[in-house]
Amino acid sequence: MDKDSRNGRPIGTGDEGQVFIMGTNNQSRRPDRRWTTKQTVSLVSVVSAIIVIIILTSVAVWYFAGYLQEKAEESHEGNDEKVPRVYTGYFKLKDMEFVPELESRSSMAFNQLSWEIHKKIKNAFTSSSAFASYYNVSAVTAFSQGSVLVYYMVMFQVKKSDLELLQSLLSVDIIREFLMSELTRDRMTNHGVFVPSSLTIYSSDEKTALLIQSSCSKTIRVGSSPVQFTSPGFENDQYPPNSECQWFLRGSPGKQLQLNFQVFELEDDCSQDFVEVFDMLIPAKNKSISLECGKQQPGSLSLTSSSNMLLLIFFTGNQHNFRGFKAKMTQLPASKCGNVDLEAVEEEKNFTTPFFPSHYPPNTQCVWKIQVKAGKRIRVVFSRFELEEPVEEDVCIKDYLEVLGTRYCAEQAIFAVRSVGQTLEVRFHSDDFLTSRGFLAEYVAFDPDNPCPGKFACRSGLCVPTIRRCDTWNDCGDNSDELDCNCRSNEFTCGNRNCIESSKYCNGHDDCGDGSDEACNAGSTCTDKDFKCLDGDCVKKINPECDNQPDCSDNTDEENCDCGMRVYQPTRVVGGQDAEKGEFPWQVSLHLQEYHASHPTHTCGASIISERWLVSASHCFQEGGKDPKLWKAYFGLHSQNALDDEEVVRHDIKRIITHGSYNSWTYDFDIALLELESPIRYTYQIRPICLPAMTHNFPVGKSCTITGWGSTKERGPAARVLQKADVNIMNDTLCKKLMDGDTTHRMLCAGFLEGGIDACQGDSGGPLVCVELPSGHWFLAGVVSWGEGCARANKPGLYTRVTTVRSWIYTNTDNEV
Ligand SMILES: *[C@@H]1O[C@H](CO)[C@@H](O)[C@H](O)[C@H]1NC(C)=O
Ligand SMILES: *[C@@H]1O[C@H](CO)[C@@H](O)[C@H](O)[C@H]1NC(C)=O
Ligand SMILES: *[C@@H]1O[C@H](CO)[C@@H](O)[C@H](O)[C@H]1NC(C)=O
Ligand SMILES: *[C@@H]1O[C@H](CO)[C@@H](O)[C@H](O)[C@H]1NC(C)=O
């Protein structure tokens, strides 16, 4: 069986892919380069007519011709490095018939026509005194229907020191006008038909220069049945280094293409290896709908085109070669999301962005008009929302949802909107750039006098189950479910959150209504399941420790309970992926200095159990991780990019104690203790987790939380923020079956049978914690250990069951914890 320790690769093999909280949120994989490149269109405004442009073009071209001459006369100073400037675009040839052969880059028709047009483009630039010395190479890369649309690329090489001066000459507007006038002026051609009626040009990333003459080009056409294709070397599980490949993907007119990646395994660094998909047959920055690297869950990445073509490009650096990708392309009928009228409904109904949870297509507008019966109102709950595009100053100008005059964009936790009357209009807009997964919305008619029958009505408009009230989680989004939760000091807090007078506690009468005020007697006849007080008495109550009720006559069940509490109130909703600062104050990030690495990097997680001790997983400290000196422990850390924040504290490790029975094949007894060089000082953001008693019961189905740092490594400064996810404790019998019998009693299973994007994992050694109510104390139920893959269906995550190693922890911390 293919067993993955949760730190990805064994220690000592370099480059860690430790954490793996999978979620809906993949935006962090995008490098920042696309946001930072702003086209500087210095001379031209949109409306000023072509005349102005033509004048400017001639002036600019004339000016630069003069400038060049001067330059040539000057002596060459130094050896100035040249940089490529790449442009790509398309134009329409009038009165020319499209023949299917033009789709195939190896056909005679393609070669003839592309050569003719290429010669004209080349000639235009090389005979211009302004452009000649910068022009490097150009090519006609594809044709498509529409009379004939011609797709082309051009590259210039410019000295770095000249770039600023040439900014206006090399602006897209000047080049467009120049090329257009050159191509229309010269009607003397072999075919006599090369008169473009319109011409569009975009700037393209420097890297795409390599595509102009790439021999790694393929055209793939999809018909009624899907087609599959793979990256080069896929059959050998390794793509070659230094590749630059492109796939021209085509479908029938009037259809949309959908690409689903069934395998996607690339290096984590998008500046080295990446796949980028464009909503046209050219690699224009403006048309990029997604740039991806790293590993993706099989099938989780799907992209959709707005028309019947896509360009996929694949670049690899000179090292770290992975498996690559396998993609399935399907042709879909054009999405119908415009002007849908949803009729008066009583029942709930869902609607989504087109093709959800695949990426929605670019250039899409949808309007939903919802109407309900008179007297009713409409509530729309957006349970998944990801319209991820760069937004400046909170203004949604690119892709957005608009409802009641407000625009929503970026990633949002669950939220609701309510109509004022019986109708509501919801609009969705996507531009022609970057797409994401979109939203899933559910609408329901409600009675304004009773907006949430049987549920708690949040101020935010959401309805949450009443059991979610006062559970320390902000389920409403505005925290309104966590207000007014505490009983007064002279009151007893019942298991069901009722408050009763303290004097009624243990009075022989069930005052709470759930018996919690009467589960109080300590006695001396014990079973294995009972909590044992230090004086030998037993408590016949489930999980009596730290529940704020003294159960032992010696009070030992309520000692050492300054743990598992968060000081602040989280402000976000469960289900969001990023943790809030201080939300999991016991989380530790362990950085390992590897042999060949320049500095230590996050490798495993751990949990604070006392001022001197941390608990983690044994498998983190094998081979290259045995030496305590190689590790640094970070406390109060939120983002891996903010190690220097003032609330972050770093400590050295004095001693690593791995479990004597740890088995590196089966991951049995995967537990370790780390003794700190010096004790930590607790703060709001640094606090211990409660260790459960040996008898503590974490029932099957209980929802618990895992935390860890994502492994997405990126160029840019994007935050590598602590991730959280909820998982359910699973049935051991079932788990053993699912894991082919490879589990032991020391392992606890958690996750979801259906797997999927919302079931996530934390990193090795990190915590699986569960909250006990009503006390609100969090307990360490498990330590992230292993699993098969990540978030796969029927493959839950495995955690070291802390209750089974509780006494080992006690003994090995010198009876301290
Ligand atoms: C194009 O640029 C490359 C370097 O990137 C250079 O080797 C080549 O000579 C140039 N070709 C022309 C025609 O300028
Ligand atoms: C490409 O995007 C830039 C920046 O968003 C915009 O100014 C420019 O007009 C776009 N180009 C075309 C041809 O649409
Ligand atoms: C709407 O979507 C939610 C979440 O996926 C699902 O639980 C619910 O059953 C769906 N409702 C309908 C009517 O499809
Ligand atoms: C676990 O599942 C088995 C059968 O699949 C069942 O017999 C057992 O009662 C379940 N245990 C719990 C605690 O739900």
From TrEMBL:
Naturally occurring in which organism (per UniProt): Eptatretus burgeri (Inshore hagfish)
GO terms classed as biological process: proteolysis
A GO-annotated cellular component: membrane
UniProt superkingdom: Eukaryota
Membrane topology: Single-pass type II membrane protein
Span of domain Peptidase S1: 573-814
UniProt cross-references to PROSITE patterns, sorted A to Z: CUB, LDLRA_1, LDLRA_2, SEA, TRYPSIN_DOM, TRYPSIN_HIS, TRYPSIN_SER
Keywords: Disulfide bond, Glycoprotein, Hydrolase, Membrane, Protease, Serine protease, Signal-anchor, Transmembrane, Transmembrane helix
CDD domains linked: CUB, LDLa, Tryp_SPc
Transmembrane segments: 40-65
Recorded GO MF terms: serine-type endopeptidase activity
Every SEA domain range: 83-206
Pfam families for the chain: CUB, Ldl_recept_a, SEA, Trypsin
UniProt entry tagged with the keyword Glycoprotein: yes
Disulfide bridges in this chain: 458-476, 470-485, 487-499, 494-512, 526-538, 546-561
Domain CUB positions: 216-332, 337-446
Primary subcellular site in the record, as a coarse category: membrane
Location of the protein in the cell: Membrane
Protein name: Suppressor of tumorigenicity 14 protein homolog
